[in-house]
Automatic annotation (TrEMBL):
It comes from Eruca vesicaria subsp. sativa (Garden rocket). Pfam families: TRM. CDD domains: AdoMet_MTases (cd02440). InterPro entries: SAM-dependent_MTases_sf, Trm1, tRNA_met_Trm1_C. It is an enzyme of class 2 (transferase). Dimethylates a single guanine residue at position 26 of most tRNAs using S-adenosyl-L-methionine as donor of the methyl groups. It catalyses: guanosine(26) in tRNA + 2 S-adenosyl-L-methionine = N(2)-dimethylguanosine(26) in tRNA + 2 S-adenosyl-L-homocysteine + 2 H(+). GO terms for molecular function: metal ion binding; tRNA (guanine(26)-N2)-dimethyltransferase activity; tRNA binding. This is tRNA (guanine(26)-N(2))-dimethyltransferase. Keywords: Coiled coil, Metal-binding, Methyltransferase, RNA-binding, S-adenosyl-L-methionine, Transferase, tRNA processing, tRNA-binding, Zinc. One of its GO terms (biological process) is methylation.
């Protein structure tokens, strides 16, 4: 390895170091440090929660066992049944009396360290960081179907020393086959593919242990955000809409797809954290097995009606439940929730979905992760970014799907925009809730109906008149109606979130240029990749490539010359031999 070190670049991230070949043979993206840091933070919390759940379960079982022993003893004394040794309990030399001993099989099996599967490991950086940075983690299995990636991963495992060698193992195999042949084996499964994770979801769901954690990334945002609706439907089973909320809708489409795969095996998911960062979405879900709980899935899914004229949208649940005696009856939802034409502007609706309309975060988890990250900020290379995202997530309304954009509302009416604080105050003064969203700095999640939202905007326009518009425009139709609610724009104390009041940064700029997706491993860099890696990198690579080609041509020409000289020498010798014999 020492002789080949000149061909590699040493990259350090967190406590792990990897050797990366200079010819882009194995995929690596520096921008994914945010993804890896967030995953480590969630994994730390999962290990802590898992331990607490095991202790609670063990304590509950011990209590029930003790109650059973006490009950049996009291029944025996009432019946006058003598106990062993003539009705007297005799303590043995080794411990308490036989009646107070716990029956065999009461204690739970000792909790083992969580076993982690990284299904698409590439260089193995993620697996190495898990092994080296997370306390209490078990074996980390890194898979890849590319031989160069597996060799790179194995090289990096050795490069990181004895701890990595003892905890991380790398295999050259198809992740789907490995997961299907190891059902319920892994406590954590991490899917971070280049593009869509759809082809891995079915096998991943089967390989996660009951109560385990599935972490999944999707980078095909053009598909999930409505650029190719038919492709999204074929991959995820949902039709996207191109609204301002499209990135949150992408999260909810991915969650609905995972739930659909889980339901086929009498399983269901509970999201603990779902984020949209940089150029991808990332979800963290617990996976449980329960045929009865699985029946609640239709209650968590909804179709979305989006008006094509204004920003109004409405959710149509897929199913509903009806309590009946001591059971629950599941029925189709009552609909439709909208008329053929929008009540506000008179335009038609587009329909998308189904999407996950239940909460996409567990606020208890988010708060705990945020506190943990703050206490260990020196151990996260991307601390500022993940802290900003988690802070914004912690302030979201978890029970409100999707969001509105204040600038879009104003664009529909063609009016100047009120300040975000003023608009929030009007909503709060009308006795509704409102919050920001981590997806969009201009997005606002609220439980106020669209009638109230448009009344607030009508009152705003009355105080800030606009030029006359064509009567058939959606904004003109909306403004032609008188407001039916009293609107109070006076400043409310809750108009700023806690983070805003403390001036905590929530939306940070990219740390460097071209911070985004990168080329697949092994691809030839050409001038069309300027948008991904920049002019300097492209020009530098092309110059280097031309020099390499020039050197190869010179070497090939020299070899041809050498061969030609050898042939000439042979011919000359043959001619001399013939002349001498004659």
């Amino acid at each position: 390895m020492e002789s080949d070190l000149n061909e590699y670049t040493v990259i350090k991230e967190g406590e792990a170091e990897i050797l990366l070949h200079k010819k882009n043979q194995v995929f690596f993206n520096k921008a994914q440090v945010n993804n890896r840091d967030m995953s480590i933070a969630v994994l730390r919390e999962f290990i802590s929660k898992r331990k607490q759940e095991h202790e609670a379960k063990s304590s509950k079982r011990n209590r029930s066992a003790s109650n059973k022993i006490d009950k049996d003893s009291s029944e025996a004394s009432k019946d006058g049944t003598p106990s062993e040794n003539g009705g007297h309990q005799v303590a043995s030399e080794d411990g308490p009396s036989s009646a107070s001993k716990k029956p065999e099989g009461v204690a739970l099996r000792e909790l083992q360290p969580p076993k982690v599967l990284e299904a698409l490991s590439a260089s193995g950086l993620r697996a190495l960081r898990y092994a080296r940075e997370i306390e209490g983690i078990g074996q980390v299995v890194a898979l890849d179907n590319d031989l160069a990636s597996v060799e790179s991963c194995q090289r990096n495992i050795k490069f990181n020393g004895s701890l990595a060698i003892s905890k991380v193992e790398s295999h050259h195999t198809d992740a789907r086959v490995h997961m299907l042949t190891h059902p319920n084996e892994f406590d954590v499964v991490d899917l971070d593919p280049y593009g869509s994770p759809s082809i891995f979801l079915d096998s991943a769901i089967q390989s996660v242990a009951d109560g385990g954690l599935l972490m999944c990334t999707a980078t095909d945002m053009a598909v999930l955000c409505g650029g190719n609706g038919e492709v999204c439907y074929s991959k995820y089973g949902s039709y996207p809409l191109r609204g301002k909320y499209c990135h949150e809708m992408a999260l909810r489409i991915l969650l609905a797809s995972i739930e659909s795969h889980a339901n086929r095996y009498k399983r269901y998911i509970v999201p603990v954290l779902s984020v949209q960062m940089d150029f991808y979405v990332r979800v963290f879900v617990r996976v449980y097995t329960s045929a009865s709980a699985m029946k609640n899935t239709p209650l968590k899914l909804s179709y979305v009606y989006q008006c094509i004229g204004c920003d109004s949208f409405h959710l149509q649940p897929v199913g509903r439940s009806l309590p009946k005696n001591n059971s629950v009856r599941y029925l189709p939802a009552i609909g439709p929730v909208v008329t053929q034409e929008c009540n506000h502007c008179g335009k038609k609706y587009n329909m998308g979905g189904p999407i996950w309309s239940a909460p996409i975060h567990d606020q208890e988890w988010v708060t705990s992760i945020l506190n943990s990250v703050k206490s260990m900020k020196d151990r996260y290379p991307a601390y500022e970014r993940i802290y900003a995202v988690l802070t914004t997530v912690s302030e979201e309304l978890v029970d409100v799907p999707l969001f509105l954009s204040l600038h879009n509302l104003c664009a529909t009416l063609k009016c100047i925009s009120p300040s975000a604080a003023m608009f929030r105050s009007a909503v709060i003064n009308a006795n509704y809730r409102i919050s920001g969203t981590h997806v969009n700095p201009l997005g606002m999640k609220t439980d106020a109906p669209m009638e109230v939202i448009w009344d607030i905007m009508r009152c705003w326009v009355k105080n800030h008149p606009i030029k006359a518009q064509a009567p058939e425009l959606p904004g003109s139709v909306i403004l032609s109606k008188e407001p039916s609610h009293q609107v109070d724009f006076s400043r409310h104390v809750g108009s700023l979130s806690k983070a805003q009041a403390k001036k905590v940064a929530r939306f940070l700029p990219n740390p460097e240029k071209h911070w985004g997706p990168k080329l697949r491993a092994g691809r030839q860099i050409t001038s069309k990749h300027v948008s991904l890696i920049g002019h300097e990198a492209v020009n530098g690579h092309l110059t280097q490539h031309h020099e390499e080609l020039k050197e190869e041509k010179e070497v090939a020409l020299q070899e041809d010359n050498n061969i030609q000289e050898e042939l000439d020498a042979k011919r000359l010798k043959t001619a001399e031999d013939v002349a001498s014999t004659s």
